[in-house]
TrEMBL record:
The keyword Hydrolase applies. Keywords: Hydrolase, Protease. SUPFAM superfamilies: Cysteine proteinases (SSF54001). GO terms for molecular function: cysteine-type peptidase activity. One of its GO terms (biological process) is proteolysis. InterPro entries: Papain-like_cys_pep_sf (IPR038765), Peptidase_C48_C (IPR003653). Belongs to the peptidase C48 family. Residues 3-34 form the Ubiquitin-like protease family profile domain. This is Ubiquitin-like protease family profile domain-containing protein. It comes from Vitis vinifera (Grape). Pfam families: Peptidase_C48.
Amino acid sequence: MTKFEFVVPEVVQQLNPMDCGIFVIKFMQLWSNGGLCRAIANCIILC
């Protein structure tokens, strides 16, 4: 049986219950450009 490595990237956590849509949009933009290869900083989300 082959074992798979489980990797959890360090990403920004939303600080309130209202920003989830913005986080989803940003994650999808980064993912669609070849994967989540870049970290998402608060300034990217909030600027």
